[in-house]
């Protein structure tokens, strides 16, 4: 039977999604910091990592988070807009996947994707997350589903499924190491 989520369970959902948000934002920040002086291999690695993280995050939200909220709250504009934003982001990711760092508009395209993702995350935090406390759903189960699916997708993409934050720190260290050489 659906119930109003506990504050702890609601926080766990937001914390799970914000782990992804923060990681993705950090990757875009790193790109902006290095884009004019990094070699092509470093830029390509950074862009591929960010795009993979975005694909995984969007899939998890679309499979679990958005449907649970839509069922609990009914169809809402912020969720529908978020779904459209995911589709546009996927289009930009698809374009980036067919490009190389030296290609015309490669950096500009990734920059625009970053701006778009920043807007999307801001909208989620301001317009969707506040709806969680009033939603009749099993937030504890939803948080577990989000984490489980994220880990499964990370495995499918060849990314570690445990030590999520630790892995991000290591990957950032690898990128910084590439920059120094």
What does this structure look like?
With 181 residues, the protein is an all-alpha fold. The protein has one domain. It contains six helices and no strands. It has helices spanning 7-34, 40-73, 77-97, 106-128, 139-156, 164-180. Helix 1 runs antiparallel to helix 4 (106-128) and helix 2 packs antiparallel against helix 5 (139-156). The mean pLDDT is 87.
What structural class should be given to the helix and strand makeup? mainly alpha
Computed Rg: 17 Å
Query: Which percent range describes the beta-strand content?
Result: under 5%
In total, the number of strands is: 0
Number of separate domains: 1
Q: Please tell me what the overall shape is.
A: elongated
Q: Helical amount among residues, as a percent range?
A: over 70%
Order of helix and strand elements from N to C terminus: HHHHHH
Low-confidence spans: pLDDT under 50, at least 5 residues? none
**How far is the N terminus from the C terminus?**
57 Å
Counting H and I runs of at least 4 residues, what is the number of helices?
6
Overall pLDDT level: 87
Could you describe the largest sheet, including whether it forms a barrel? none
Topology:
Layout: H1 7-34, H2 40-73, H3 77-97, H4 106-128, H5 139-156, H6 164-180
Helix pairs in contact: 1-2, 1-4, 1-5, 1-6, 2-3, 2-5, 3-4
